[in-house]
Amino acid sequence: MTDSRTGRCQCKAVDYEFTGLPRTVHACHCSECQKRSGSAFGLTMVVGKDSFVLNGKLTTYVRVSDSGQRVTAYFCPMCGSPIYGELERFPDIVAIRPGTLDDTSWFKPERHIWTSSAQNWFEFPEGCEGLPKGRW
């Protein structure tokens, strides 16, 4: 039996499903994720692209990362909820925004990345792996 997880945007115009376990879940403290999330960090859940099914139309925003790679953000055109992102460098994955999951009780970040850019008031959880720079 394969686990299936579902999620949706705030207005419910877009929904998605993926199967299996995520490859990783991390909290990113880079300035781009802070701007994207409107918070101190952004959460990302990485899943295989072949296990991800989307229903509905999304709007995109494309930017070039510090490493020169294209990063595409997909969000609901009605309510603006960020749903997922794609990285040119890793074409076989999608980076789901886990706050859009219907059930958020089962996961927690495995690591914090770009900790060198973290807000000075943020306290990292004890025992959680931290990387001063990201791996993307």
Give descriptors for this structure.
single chain; about 140 residues; mainly beta; glutathione-dependent formaldehyde- activating enzyme (gfa); eight-stranded mixed beta sheet; three-stranded antiparallel beta sheet; 1 helix
Mean pLDDT level: 90
Q: What is the strand arrangement across the widest sheet?
A: 6-7-8-9-4-3-10-11
Could you give me the name of the CATH homologous superfamily?
glutathione-dependent formaldehyde- activating enzyme (gfa)
**Overall structural domain count:** 1
The fold-level CATH name is glutathione-dependent formaldehyde- activating enzyme (gfa)
Level-2 CATH architecture:
Alpha-Beta Complex
- Biggest sheet descriptor: 8 strands, mixed
Number of helices: 1
The level 1 CATH classification is Alpha Beta
Distance between the termini: 32 Å
What would your notes on this structure say?
- The protein has a single domain, classed as glutathione-dependent formaldehyde- activating enzyme (gfa) (Alpha-Beta Complex), CATH 3.90.1590.
- Helix content is 5%, strand content 42%.
- The chain is built from 1 helix and 11 strands; from the N terminus they run βββαββββββββ.
- It has one helix at 31-37, and strands at residues 4-8, 15-19, 24-28, 42-48, 52-55, 59-64, 70-75, 82-87, 90-96, 111-113, 129-131.
- It has an 8-stranded mixed beta sheet.
- It is globular, with a radius of gyration of 15 Å.
- It starts with a strand and ends in a 5-residue tail after the last strand.
